[in-house]
Write a structure and sequence with these properties.
alpha/beta; 11 strands; 279 residues; 23% strand; 9 helices; six-stranded mixed beta sheet; single chain; Rossmann fold; globular
């Protein structure tokens, strides 16, 4: 079992009497045992074989005029101002916006999502430090029986795990490189904004998403408080769509204006697909 303990978490806080914002990084429980690293590689390869993953048909898989906001955190910590603000900015820019909130943010949604030029994920996330995988939390409450029956194969392969927040809220979590995997080319051309912690911390995840054709990933390079990621993401969207800045420029501008997270000192980063041009 892998757990991010409170001592290591508190060691990342700045001193000086600053109020500790709501913690956004989570505990990730390991629900399987891998004896050898090569065993993990074989299981991983099997998961992505043609038997389990739909075959790609080629071509651009997204509609650049469509955007989606996935708000799993909204099931316990909604932020109507953030959600309404982002949706309003995108719609004024001419985009059609779909919103998935609360209990609608399921494992099935995460692995079927696709077709959007912009994909914003307001979900908890955590990294398995042993193997370097990033996991995205759904809003489905974890259930041991369902884990053993409905997700038996995913459990065996480490594709779905139990995720636990610092408030001891238990949810099913999907390995992030499996985002949209049931929709061939569904992320090809997408810009993905990960609002959770350590979104840039898994090289495996970044590589796999870029292999799927993702255009760019915008994410935090460490822990981030919920209040701050909401504020920064809203202002990022405003900079990109109201000021007509390209995303790399918008990220740079917002970080220069607002700075790193005041609690954890993490920064928002733009990572473009290596072989593509900047948006």
């Amino acid at each position: 079992m892998l757990r991010l303990d409170s001592k290591s978490r508190e060691a990342n806080l700045k001193t000086g009497g600053k109020r500790v914002r709501e913690k956004f990084l989570l505990i990730l429980k390991v629900a399987f045992i891998v004896v050898l690293p090569c065993g993990l590689t074989l299981l991983y390869s099997g998961w992505f074989s043609g038997v389990n993953e739909p075959q790609s048909a080629g071509g651009l898989g997204v509609d650049m005029s469509r955007a989606a906001i996935i708000d799993g955190i909204g099931v316990t910590k909604p932020n109507p101002e953030f959600m309404g603000g982002v949706k309003e900015v995108l719609e004024r820019a001419g985009l059609k916006v779909d919103v998935y909130e609360g209990e609608n943010v399921t494992i099935d949604l995460l692995r079927n999502i696709g077709g959007y030029g912009i994909l914003i994920l307001r979900v908890h996330s955590a990294i398995d430090l042993k193997y370097g995988f990033l996991y995205l939390f759904s809003a489905e409450e974890f259930n041991e029986t369902e884990y053993d029956v409905r997700f038996s194969e995913e459990k065996r392969l480490g594709a779905v795990r139990e995720g636990v927040t610092f408030e001891n809220e238990r949810y099913f979590a999907l390995r992030a490189d499996l985002l949209g995997y049931l929709r061939p080319n569904g992320l090809k051309g997408s810009t993905i904004i990960l609002m959770g912690c350590n979104g840039t911390g898994s090289e495996h995840t970044l590589n796999r998403l870029f292999e799927k054709g993702v255009k760019a990933i915008i994410a935090w390079n460490g822990y981030v408080s919920l209040e701050y990621t909401d504020e920064i993401t809203l202002n990022l969207i405003r900079a990109a769509y109201e000021e007509s800045l390209k995303f790399p420029e918008a990220v740079k501008k917002i970080m220069e204006e607002y700075g790193p997270d005041p609690v954890y000192e993490s920064k928002l980063e733009y990572i473009g697909e290596p072989s593509s041009q900047q948006p």
